[in-house]
Amino acid sequence: MGGIPLLILPVDKTRIAEKKNDVSSFYNTKEIKELENVLKFCDGFILPGGDTWYQLDEMVIKYAIKYDKPLLAICLGMQALSKVLNCKTKKVYDNTIKNDNFINHYLPNEDYVHEVIIDKNSKLFSIMKEEKIKVNSRHNYHIPPFLNTNYISARSLDGLIEGVEEKNKKFIIGVQWHPETILEKDINAKKIFEAFFDNF
Prior knowledge:
The chain is 26% helix and 17% strand. By secondary structure, the protein is an alpha+beta fold. It has a single domain, classed as Class I glutamine amidotransferase (GATase) domain (Rossmann fold, 3-Layer(aba) Sandwich), CATH 3.40.50. Strands 1-2-9-8-7-4-5 form a seven-stranded mixed β-sheet, sandwiched between helices. The N and C termini lie close together (11 Å). The relative contact order is 0.17.
């Protein structure tokens, strides 16, 4: 594994509080072109977790899909990816739902919290070579159940969507857990990142 990281941040733009649909400013055509000129330097993209996503995140996702660039979307990144895959609107908004299931999905200090069942017909399964794996979990929100099932690659035992992907692209994969935090000790976390870099 390897690579030179380039941090791309949403600078000087209104924080997008999409649950209220009160976005006051979007990138204009010139700014979008400038961003695309930066994205051209990148061989792949990692969208990390966090507490909100921005128009910038959705632009990176759409760019990766359009040009078939490897994209690994983690936690909130996966939630943003699922919204882009399932929704054609240009408006950026957070479509997640508060967790209320029998599994506690917010245990940030635990390496392994619950099991995930992987679809045998998915790219994720071709990487993991296992139908069931144990993952960590630190999210209070999840994506809605009406996501097109063609994009779903994994679920937890309580039915929450834990993996999404664009099957017609080389590597557009999102996972709800955090493989980056157990990379040194977990073989499945290593498999995800190795597959990501192998698609450069």
